[in-house]
Design a protein that fits this description.
Length: about 140
């Protein structure tokens, strides 16, 4: 049986890992934790009603500079509070809009790319979350 840091979500079985597929690196575990933080709605997590960005709450909002600013602020605040080991270097919206641009994004999709690093490990990655009314896919 392999040693892992956490079970991969959603839970799946794996003969190599034992009962459940396991995450075997800090980068994989950090990415999964960041996804959970972004996708969890405030009030949804038991015993901590402040946890989560609740990105789906913004799905039917008008896609304006003000909306993207609210999403950015919420992501930065939540990551700072719950994942202080992670540094957000950029947040990119559907049309390639980054944190420093003020353009209106496409109204049919809320897609966010979060570029982050883990300074203590000298590593980083980009988490992409395309969210639409038809469902969510993650990469």
């Amino acid at each position: 049986m392999a040693v892992g840091l956490a079970p991969a979500l959603p839970l799946t079985t794996d003969e190599e890992d034992g009962h459940f597929t396991l995450l075997k690196s800090i980068l994989q575990t950090t990415e999964q934790n960041l996804k959970m933080l972004i996708l969890t709605c405030p009030g949804e997590r038991i015993m901590d009603i402040n946890f989560g960005v609740g990105i789906r709450n913004y799905l039917f909002e008008q896609h304006t500079v003000q909306t993207t600013a609210k999403i950015r602020a919420k992501i930065l605040e939540q990551v700072s509070r719950y994942m202080p080991q992670v540094v957000i270097t950029d947040i990119i919206f559907d049309n390639g809009q980054s944190m420093n641009q003020n353009t209106i994004i496409d109204d049919n999709l809320l897609s966010i790319g979060i570029e982050y690093s883990i300074p203590s490990l000298v590593t980083g990655a980009i988490l992409t979350l395309p969210i639409s009314s038809g469902g969510t896919t993650y990469s």
